[in-house]
Amino acid sequence: MSTEEKPAAAPRSLAEALRGRGDAELAALLRSRPDLVTPVPTDLTQLATRAGTRASVVRALDRLDLFTLQTAQALAVAADPAPYDELLGLLAGDEGDRAVPAALPGAVRTLREQALVWGDDDRLRLVRTARELLSPSPQHPSPTGLGPTVREATAGMSPGRIQEIVTTVGLPSTHDSVSAVAELTGLFTDRERMAELLAEVPFESLEVLERLVWGPPYGQVTADPATRLRRLLDRGLLLPTAPGTVVLPREVALHLRGGRAHRTVEPVPPPVGAAATHPPQVVDATAAGQAYTALATVEELLKDWDEGGPAVLRSGGLSLRDLKRTAVALDVTEPVAAFWVELAYAAGLLASDGEADERYAATPAYDTWRERPAAERWTTLAAAWLTATRTPGLVGGRDAKDHTLSALGPGLDRSAAPEVRRRVLTLLAGLPEGAAPDAGSVTERLRWERPLRATDGAAGSGSTGSGTGGGDDLRSRLARWTLTEAEMLGVTGRGALSAHGRALLGMPAPKAHAERTDRSPEPTGPGDRLPVHHRPAIPPPDSPAPSSPLLTALTPAEQAAASAAAARLLAPQLPEPLDHVLLQADLTAVAPGPLQRPLADMLGVLADVESKGGATVYRFTPGSVRRALDAGRAATDLHAFLAAHSRTPVPQPLTYLIDDVARRHGHLRVGAASAYVRCDDDAMLHEILADKRAAGLGLRRLAPTVLAAQADPAGLLEGLRRMGFAPAAESAEGDVLITRADARRTPPRAAPEPVPEGPPVPDDTLLAAAIRAVRAGDLASTVPRKAKAGEADAGAGSGELPRTGSAETLATLQAAVLTGESLWIGYVNAEGAASQRVIAPVRVEGGFVTAYDHTADEVRTYPLHRITGVAELADEEN
């Protein structure tokens, strides 16, 4: 036989096309369509079968951009198989769109890589399931607006009627309907003859065709059609499909459209426009201010819930009343309050306590978070927001069962949220530095990149519409929410992406920013800069989105490095915490900036916040001073604290207030009997009994220094404090109980896991193992084997396991050990799963065979009783 290489034969199936791919191409396919690798296919034939299932094809179509989807739709209405030139004509039309020839090779390449199209350029084939989904039908009209072909529309028509149409249009009559339909199709696809035929049709009849040409192609007619319709029906320009229904044949519509399958083809993604441009320094400063506000808001929220937050609804989540109270406490609107609550929950700082009377409270992780530097605390929040699937913007909406969606409740996860957030910020990063995007252009770009996600359920509904219409689909809303939330969080400033926001995405700083910071100190931390090999390849904004959005997501290690880089850039922009306040004579203290943690914590107990802004004003009241005394502080401690941290002298009214409250604090003792009041001052107890406000406490004197109460200790404490006294709680041993403001914490709680969108993308190790297993399994299922005497050809791919007796199996294996030959075996594992393998036996003893298994690419040992049979491999041709 000649040793010259023969040209590779055209693949006859998708499995053969996959068999001709390299390992890198198979890895790209499995990475972009991870559902194909779960579980690992046994061979390439099974991989091709799985790639053609409806669920997998719908998921793959859902990932296509608009032009690639339009290419697939054009293939669905083209011949099967279709040459490349025919596909180009359907997309570019007779006039020729200059952008289409440049973009079409990339679209076809994407469809091939996704295993949605196979075959050479002269025989392009759309996967059968994709053709069924995208082809026109009365039940599922094609987005192209085209109808059935002449052959499909005349399938149920009588032969006599077909011959009448052929005669009317001037074609010679034929002996059978098949050749008649072929002649009619040839006429409708011949541009010159078709133009002559239409020239004979009156104008009013052409108007009917114009109304159907761009779809829908179906129309209604009466039993006695008008003359203008009769002319069209007689010439086959309209064909009946059902009583009272006619359709415009696909070939006629394409002629009237000038050969175009779509009215509008969009080979180039719409650009993202800039609405305004600001100096980068202003953007970074504004974003840093927002970041500091975000930290203060989260701390204020969780401080308000320190002693136990709102109750958890029976159905889960936060009640509308509690959300309103939280919004009032934070001085924000309810949607904004829902965002901060959900952000704290996504970062693992907030959770339910799991008690019988379940309530929300801060987690132990919150205490650790508060002790970290401000920039690191911000990156924790920002990274949690970037990857969270929970969507605060849905709060207040309705679910599929018409139930209201509540903050912290179920039903808020949207698996597309992380992809949209990252993609929106990436589009912002592609704009000039300091440019804020036009929100409308961002949503238009996202709709171009994922047109099938025009509705919440598009990913699973099997819808095949282009989805470009409308502006309130889920991805558009997610994009708008992303722009708003990024501004509140401080990822953007004045709408433009900040330098630390860019670093959070794992992207290097712009050249201009790098030049501005050249004189800054060199970073010393291990995570201060992203290693070059850890920076993901993020496409420019004018390039189509990748086939799988998770390809641009960072690994945990890369995200940690990106967060460290973001913290390094943000830290110099944040104000330095102060160690002092300004005490004033009106019992207030002014904090001219953020306070250091110990000072802020102590001042938060000793005084009440009166106003916030550039400077925070605290007010000292008898209640706030009592709160500090309840926390175990003595009056001398409070005097020393204020003197040490005030830049102004301690006002005399404040000194008197502390001494007066301390003198009365603890004079009364409240303990548990049901409850009792103990005091050495008999006159004070008599005063309490005489007070009408004590009537609800059920007090009665048990002894000169003791009053018993029907109220519980907590109610008794609160009642006496409302009366103006300063009681202290005591333990059963008579010791004063110290109450700390931050005592309420949940048990350790992990942050909520994002809800993945389909199977996770396999890592490189799993991909390498899967490809090796698929290759070996394919070898086992396709390798030629020798036929036995009297047996038919046992070529490759029969799919049946070899069957031999135990004695023959043992003898064949022992012979292969001596000769070093490989064998084809059938094997059934302990779970009963059967497989075919190619092995090279090394040793046979003790009821086991030890062999090199080409399927697993390693040496393995198999029990002989689980081998169904063996067969020798056919000799390779030289």
From TrEMBL:
It comes from the Bacteria. InterPro entries: WYL_dom, XPB/Ssl2_N. Residues 134-154, 452-474, 508-551, 782-804 are annotated as: Disordered. Residues 581-703 form the Helicase XPB/Ssl2 N-terminal domain. Pfam families: Helicase_C_3, WYL. One of its GO terms (molecular function) is helicase activity. Residues 459-471 have a biased composition (Gly residues). Residues 512-521 have a biased composition (Basic and acidic residues). Residues 537-547 have a biased composition (Pro residues). Keywords: ATP-binding, Helicase, Hydrolase, Nucleotide-binding. Coiled coil: none annotated. Residues 808-870 form the WYL domain. This is Helicase C-terminal domain-containing protein. It comes from Streptomyces hirsutus.
